[in-house]
Amino acid sequence: MKKQKHWYDYLWIWSILYFSLGFFNILFAWLGMLDFMLPLLIAVFGGNKWFCNHLCGRGQLFALLGGKLKLSHGRPTPHILTTKAFRYGFLIFFMAMFGNMLFQTYLVAAGANGLREAIQLLWTIRVPWDWAYSAGTVPDWVAQFSFGFYSLMLTSALIGLVMMLLYKPRSWCAFCPMGTMTQCVCKIKQKDHLLQEQEEASL
Amino acid sequence: MAKRYAAVRQKDCVSCGACQAVCPKSAIAVWKGCFAKVDKELCIGCGLCAKACPANVITLLDREAAQA
Q1: What is the mean pLDDT of residues A180-196?
Q2: pLDDT reading at A86 higher than 90
Q3: pLDDT given at position A200
Q4: Which of A155, A187, A123, A128 is nearest to B34 (CA)?
Q5: Domain around B54
Q6: Distance of CA A100 to the CA centre of its chain
Q7: Could A53 and B14 be called an inter-chain contact, meaning their C-beta atoms sit closer than 8 Å?
Q8: How far is B23 from chain A (nearest CA, A)?
Q9: What CATH number is associated with residue B26?
Q10: H-state helical runs in A64-139
């Protein structure tokens, strides 16, 4: 029996659209804040991972490329990447890089640094991206944040794509920082229930 | 009833929902963002969820062996 399709089953298009828009105009990078805020808001107020489970365009894109289009090798994700230590470590690293990006934005806003029209892949490789922005369109810090945020999104997408090719289509999900963070929020919200279940299991 | 069914090692589940996206019977779903739960009655033991699971936490168990 074929599953009924919903509108949100096509959000993989959003994932492609996001990077395409940012290629032509970096200011569209701000839209990525949706992918940042929505999972958190849903986890905090809804107490679930409905975003990961239904709305994540990236997860859908990986499932499509790796599953339907058979681009994935399908090997099991290396165990180390699925451990709590690695997942939380990666989350901390990612948040530190996010904080650094915010600090760079602040430096530009405060006038200490000039705007750099480039994106940084894997936090190290600088790629010129100057065609995507005309200087002076918006305050420099707004543009700086765009370049920084787009770098973060593209870097994580590239890591996810490599994971998809080498391992399972959605191997990225095993250590996605947003996924780790939202699961942590949900577990804290269900703390009492989880403790009770644990006690019952140990009886 | 199918011979096998899927079982989730809940403490290591990342609740991404890759399993529920592929399940043809809607027999597996993420419970309140914490981990995936299987409805044993509905599960047909096809193994699609185990194949999709990025955290490698789903295994197929033998129904008869589990009951014994």
Answers
A1: 91
A2: yes
A3: 77
A4: A187
A5: 4-67
A6: 16
A7: no
A8: 9
A9: 3.30.70.20
A10: 79-82, 84-109
Q: What's the pLDDT score for residue B63? A: 86
Closest CA of chain B from A164, distance in Å: 10
Contact status of A74 with chain B (Cβ, < 8 Å): yes
- Nearest residue, CB atoms, A63 vs list B21, B24, B30: B21
How many angstroms away from the CA of A49 is the closest CA of chain B? 5
Tokens of B39: 């409805």
Share of chain A above pLDDT 90, in %: 77
Distance CA(A76)–CA(A21), nearest Å, equals 33
Q: Both tokens of residue A86?
A: 């690695």
Q: CB A168 to CB B32 under 8 A? A: no
- Rounded mean pLDDT, A146-174: 96
Q: Torsions phi, psi of A5, nearest 5?
A: -85, 140
A164 shares contact with chain B (CB less than 8 Å): no
**Does pLDDT of A1 surpass 60?**
no
